Request: fold
Amino acid sequence: MQIINQFIHYSAVALEITGIAIIVIISISAIFNAFVMLMKGVEHHTLFRAFRHHLARGILLGLEFLVGADIINTVTLDMSFRSIGVLAVVVLIRTFLSFTLETEMSGHWPWQEHMVRAGKAKN
Reply:
């Protein structure tokens, strides 16, 4: 049983490290891309929007891994009402962040997706 708990613990740690690494690497990539766009003379508004879009996608992806690690830790290693409550709050915050970042990246509300594809969305 101890070997299984260690495996689960190391799996959760690996997911946490992966999530952090994704956020850091994509942040560096976003900065690099912004610098390249700046050197090419891209308009500042376009550059800023592309930078934020790139950064938001990295944060969303990294958050997915971090939440996965929290779920593994809570459900398998530390099953208590307090830890489940903390997990619920973390998932709610992550869902809110995901919703707002996705809305900001796409430029419209999620329920307007079909109108955007048809070219009729009003922001």
Observations:
- The radius of gyration is 19 Å.
- Residues 16 and 72 are 11 Å apart (CA to CA).
- Helices lie at 2-39, 44-77, 81-106, 113-118.
- The chain has a mean pLDDT of 85.
